[in-house]
Amino acid sequence: MSNTLGLYLHIPFCRSKCDYCDFYSVAHRGDRMDDYQKALLKHIAETAPLANKQTVNSVYIGGGTPTWYGEKRLRELLSAVKKRFNVSRDAEITLEANPDSADYKTLVRLRRAGVNRLSLGMQSSNDDELEAVGRPHKFYQVKEAVAAARKAKIKNLNLDLIYGLPGQTMDSWKQSVEDALALGPEHLSCYGLTVEEGTPLARHVAGGLVLPDDDELADRYLWTVARLAEAGYEQYEVSNFAKSGYQSRHNLKYWMGEPYVGLGAAAHSDFGGCRYSFVRDVEGYIRGVLQGERLLDDMDRIPRRERGSEYLMLRMRTTHGIEEWEYRREYYMNFDPIGARLAEYEQKGWAARSGRRWHFTPEGFLLSNRLIGELLELQEASTLANTLEKLRAGPPPRADG
Ligand code: SF4
């Protein structure tokens, strides 16, 4: 088991809510930030002793909009994390930010406090597209924030982009990608817009808003993968691309099934053989930590040997992919039906082999939800067949038989 640990701090405050957003965050609740901070600091102090045998090599402050939470609070959190946890000297310390709250003064202070990676929510370089989904910034602010980050000597920068925004065309998407490339980020995340139930976007769609269709999205995705490869960004996950040496450690922990601890409202963890999450409510979280009320929202104890389905689901999102003997050795499962299906996908151009590893091609990533679903069905059928075989064989003979 890995002796390194990822730490995630969730800051669930935003200036305003974007129309598509399904992440847990609240707008206009600056009045609760001080109490939330007290709760987070207490939670950090209480959790750190449980992880005293592990080295934290990745800290991720996400949200929400951490920069909206205020630089002083963020520095206080980082200082508490460094004091309480064993944070390695080369830890990747990422801060998520929106372009309208990432100025030079803020960034330089946070860089001095340890932040060495900035993830900026750019989403598009087209102001009409940004406005159409309620983003609280314009493209000129992205350029200013990137210049501020570079001046503050932040050498690892990610830009998030969204394809499929209302009103976006193939040409305007290409322009956004080119504008992002011109800013010289080390890492790019390109996500397809998803319409999440209960969001204002879902209501707009129900009311007649037309979004780019699946074929258009597929064209944008495949063009993007090719364009970013040409620009020197290696795809390492369905939606993530990086220059050599700049893959996100935080992201990889999740996809590689490595342990991480999340603190904050709605934060998820995979730690000590358990997956768990905290209540999805700022008030509930504050009361849970400060007054001992219910804090856990969900908890599942999953022994490592029973994580074969996670292995398939998460690793097949990456270009690292899966490997037959890794699968057999770690999860005691039969790879044959999965290997046979992957060979069929290879014929169709959806999967490829590098050495003994299998991974999806960009065309396969486009269909990955369906294809991973099929692989999981095969896995389940093979597990069931195995159990039935054991039952038919009956109990082992008794020693005194
Ligand atoms: S800034 Fe990010 S977290 Fe906040 S509402 Fe917009 S998408 Fe959601």
Could you outline the blueprint of secondary structure elements for this entry?
Layout: E1 4-11, E2 13-14, E3 26-27, H1 33-47, E4 55-63, H2 66-69, H3 71-84, E5 86-97, H4 104-112, E6 117-123, H5 127-132, H6 139-151, E7 156-163, H7 170-182, E8 187-192, H8 200-206, H9 214-230, E9 234-237, E10 240-242, H10 249-255, E11 260-263, E12 268-271, E13 274-278, H11 282-291, E14 296-301, H12 308-315, E15 322-323, H13 324-331, H14 336-347, E16 351-354, E17 357-360, H15 362-366, H16 368-393
Parallel strand pairs: 1-4, 1-11, 2-3, 4-5, 5-6, 6-7, 7-8
Antiparallel strand pairs: 8-10, 9-10, 12-13, 13-14, 15-17, 16-17
Helix pairs in contact: 1-3, 1-11, 4-6, 7-9, 12-16
Bound molecules: iron/sulfur cluster (SF4).
Iron/sulfur cluster (SF4) binds next to loops.
Your description of this structure?
This protein has about 400 residues and is of the alpha/beta class. It has 16 helices and 17 strands. The chain has two domains: about 5-255, Aldolase class I (TIM Barrel, Alpha-Beta Barrel), CATH 3.20.20.70; about 305-390, Arc Repressor Mutant, subunit A, CATH 1.10.10. Helices cover about 45% and strands about 20% of the residues. Strands 9-10-8-7-6-5-4-1-11 form a nine-stranded mixed β-sheet, with helices on both faces. α7 (about 170-180) links the parallel β7 and β8. α1 (about 35-45) crosses α11 and α4 (about 105-110) runs parallel beside α6 (about 140-150). The longest helix has 26 residues, at about 370-395. The relative contact order is 0.11. The structure holds iron/sulfur cluster. Iron/sulfur cluster (SF4) binds near residues 64, 65 and 121.
